[in-house]
C-alpha cells in the first residue's frame, strides 16, 4: 500500500501550490482526504472528496483551497491558492485509513 504525496515547497504569502497524492496497492477509496500538521500542533483535517466529487473543507481554507480527484489515475489533488504563513505544515494524504509520508509546505511572510 502506498500513498505518495508531492508538490510541496517554499512559497511566499499569496502564492500557490498544487499537491498530488498517487495511490497504489489498494482500491482508490470512496473518500480521500488531506490533513496537515504544523510544528507543535495536532494533525488537522483540511479537505475531503468523495468518489462522486462532493467536497468538504475546514473553514480556514474555504475559498482558497480546492480538492479534486482523478479516479482513472488513482490521484487526489489539493490546489492551494492565496497561501498564508499559517498554512505552513506537513500535508498528508489519507485514504482507507492509510497515510502518506507527507510533503512539507512552507509559506514565508
Structure description:
Strands 2, 4, 5, 6, 9, 10 and 11 form a seven-stranded mixed sheet that branches. A four-stranded antiparallel sheet has the order 1-3-8-7, with no helix packed on it. The chain is mostly beta strands. The protein is built from no helices and eleven strands.
Q: Note the main sheet.
A: 7 strands, mixed
Oligomer: single chain
What is the overall shape? globular
What's the SSE pattern?
A: EEEEEEEEEEE
Briefly note the structural class of the backbone.
Answer: mainly beta
Low-pLDDT residue spans = none
Whole-number mean pLDDT: 95
Radius of gyration: 13 Å
Please provide the count of β strands.
Answer: 11
**How many angstroms does the end-to-end distance come to?**
37 Å
Range of helix content: under 10%
Strand content: over 45%
By DSSP (H or I, 4+ residues per run), the number of helices equals 0
Write the layout of secondary structure elements.
Elements: E1 2-6, E2 9-12, E3 17-24, E4 31-37, E5 44-50, E6 55-57, E7 65-70, E8 75-80, E9 89-95, E10 98-99, E11 103-108
Parallel strand pairs: 2-11
Antiparallel strand pairs: 1-3, 3-8, 4-5, 4-9, 5-6, 7-8, 9-10, 9-11
Features:
109 residues, mainly beta, 11 strands, globular
Amino acid at each position: 500500500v502506498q500513498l505518495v504525496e508531492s508538490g510541496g515547497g517554499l512559497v511566499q504569502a499569496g502564492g500557490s501550490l498544487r499537491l498530488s497524492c498517487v495511490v497504489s496497492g489498494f482500491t482508490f477509496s470512496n473518500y480521500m482526504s488531506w490533513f496537515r500538521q504544523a510544528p507543535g500542533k495536532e494533525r488537522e483535517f483540511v479537505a475531503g472528496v468523495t468518489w462522486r466529487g462532493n467536497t468538504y473543507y475546514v473553514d480556514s481554507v474555504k475559498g482558497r483551497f480546492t480538492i479534486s480527484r482523478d479516479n482513472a489515475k488513482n490521484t487526489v489533488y489539493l490546489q492551494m491558492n492565496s497561501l498564508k504563513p499559517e498554512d505552513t505544515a506537513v500535508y498528508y494524504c489519507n485514504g482507507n485509513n492509510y497515510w502518506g509520508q507527507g510533503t512539507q509546505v512552507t509559506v514565508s511572510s
